[in-house]
Every structure is written in structure tokens, then in C-alpha cells.
């Protein structure tokens, strides 16, 4: 096996349930030591993919290898992995320490070895001093740490996590997700993590695998998904507030790059890439819109606008911005910030010649349309 051999290989794997749902023809290579997030809406096949890697589901076709070994027909206990679930799955009548070492005892590990591993797991999860408590005497975050410690003591190089933070409140989610990421890096293990929360995925992953309808929509570094979404679905799923997507036919013809077929074209723009001005008398390049409302979040303000023939858009402006609902505004953007997708199959299009790019050096759109003392 070479250093380049993926730690997990999934080749053309399908698992289709009665009714046709499931996962279809999945192929994924996961590098050793990476943090991989399976992301997507409910029912897209994330858990089924994780369960296939775990061996809790059997593939109808295809091959799964872990660490160079074909495990397609190997039972879960022989795959050398641990799992952390949303429900923690702790034994209520056992103490923290007993919960953590339960698996080691079952496997008849020596007393000395159990003691060493328990101390290490308590240290890395910050649970020293809680050994004798029962799960009911712990907070949700502490319970999830016990589940993590139990996964760690097993000493497996692969840990699978299925929505482990969904029972925690927003503040705890934030701190525990940092703990999980730190732990993964410190231990050098490979983690495959399921979530439908794109913020969680973006902040934790080395690689995000975005799924839709049982297939991979896009796989890559979080920045790739954000900056170069492969499809309109990926563009709309990653990012908050989401990218505005609208038929190009709703735009003035001159803002659409030459060579693209306007009749089947979707335009996308991120909230932070929209410049907005209330000065609609100047003939600015861009489109006109009507303000629906604004949301002040402290460091920034989201302005939502209505654009005829579309579902509208959101502009993300720094600081506090007041614009009364009903105000007419002019929206513009740098040509390179625009995303173009096939209006039918949703695939990203890369225009080679762009009228607006050609105009860009002379127009200074953003300077021209800076918000005049709102
Ligand atoms: N045992 C099963 N029998 C029948 N259909 C199933 C079974 N398990 C999953 N499915 C279906 O397969 C599809 C994928 O399910 P899966 O649980 O993998 O989705 P998911 O992305 O993890 O969703 P969620 O975020 O809601 O957990 C869904 O349509 C689901 O209803």
C-alpha cells in the first residue's frame, strides 16, 4: 500500500431500499487522518453512507475498503472503527468511567491497559473528576464527551459520527464541535461525520461531501464548495444567508456574459458580493430592486430585496444600515463574483467571454455604488 492509498475507498456502492430510496453508485476516496463531513438535506443518504462504512448496512453492489482491506462483507466489530451517535447511547446505571471502559472490558483487555487508556481518554476529553458520576448527573455536552471518550479508548484509527451534536444547544454545539475537531487532530484519526448543518460542516471539515437524492452532488474543501459550487443546489445549500439564485431572464441583457443562453440560465450571487445604493438616478450597471426589510446582527445588516420575476435576494452590508421597506435600490456586483448555472440540469457554467468582465476595469461599480450616507 502506498502513502497515497486512500484510507477509506468506496467504489460504485449502492444500497437501495424498497421504494427506491437509499444511495446510488457512490464512489468516494477518503485520505488517512482527514475530517470528512457528509452533508445534505434530510433523506439524502448521509446516514446510509455512514452505516455502509460501519457495516451496519450491506451494499447491494460495489466495494468498500478500509486501510487497504476489502471490508465489504466484514461485520462491524471487525472493521476497526468506533461510532458516536446523536443519542450518546450511554448506560444510565453505569458511572462515567464504567461507560467509557465498557467495550474494553467486553474485549477482556488487561486491567493495567484499561487504567492507562481510561486516564488518557479522561484527559483528552476534560472529564477528570467526573469518573464516578452517572449520565443523569451530567450536562448534554458532558454526556457527549463521555461518548467521545468511549470512542477514543477503543484506540481505533477511524471514528464515525452521526449528528453527534444535534441534542445540544447552540452554545454547546459550538464548543463541542471545536473539542471534536481538536481531538481528531491531536489523535491523528480519520473521522467521518454526518450533519445537515452546513455551518458545522464548513467549520470542521477538511473535505465536505454534499449529497442529494442518494448521490454525491459535490465533494471538496469547504472553500471550494463555497467559492465554486458545482451546481445550483450546492450554491443554495452552502452559505447563510444562502446565495440568491434567479433566472437570468429576469436580468437586463447587458449583465449576462456573451455566449450564454439566457433562456436556460440561472444567475447566482452571494449576499456579500452585492453592492447596494439608494441612488437610483445614476445610471448604474446592475438591477433595480425594492427593499423588503432588514435584519441588524451587530457587525452586519442583511437587507432583503424583491426583484421582479425572482425569489429576491439578500445583501450583506457591514455595520448598521437603515433602509426603509419599500425603498427603491440599485444592486450591482463585480463580474467575477457572479455564478452561472445551467437552468435545466443546474451544472456550473464557466463563461469564457464575459461582457461584464470586459467592462469591469472601467466601471468601478463598487465605488460608484457605495451607499450614500444611509
Ligand atoms: N431501513 C430503511 N428502509 C427503507 N428506507 C430507508 C431505510 N433507511 C433509509 N431509508 C431511506 O433512504 C433514504 C436515505 O436515508 P438516510 O437515513 O441515509 O438519509 P439522511 O440523509 O441520513 O437523512 P436524515 O438527515 O433525515 O437522517 C431516505 O429516503 C430514507 O427514507
From TrEMBL:
An MF annotation (GO) of this entry: ATP binding
Domain named ABC transporter: residues: 8-238
UniProt similarity note: Belongs to the ABC transporter superfamily.
SMART domains: AAA
Name this polypeptide is given: ABC transporter ATP-binding protein
Bias type Polar residues, positions: 351-374
Organism field: Thalassospira profundimaris
Gene Ontology cellular-component annotations: ATP-binding cassette (ABC) transporter complex, substrate-binding subunit-containing
Origin superkingdom: Bacteria
Keywords, alphabetical: ATP-binding, Cell membrane, Membrane, Nucleotide-binding, Translocase, Transport
UniProt-listed Pfam families: ABC_tran (PF00005), TOBE_2 (PF08402)
The organism's taxonomic lineage, starting at the top: Bacteria, Pseudomonadati, Pseudomonadota, Alphaproteobacteria, Rhodospirillales
Region (Disordered): 345-374
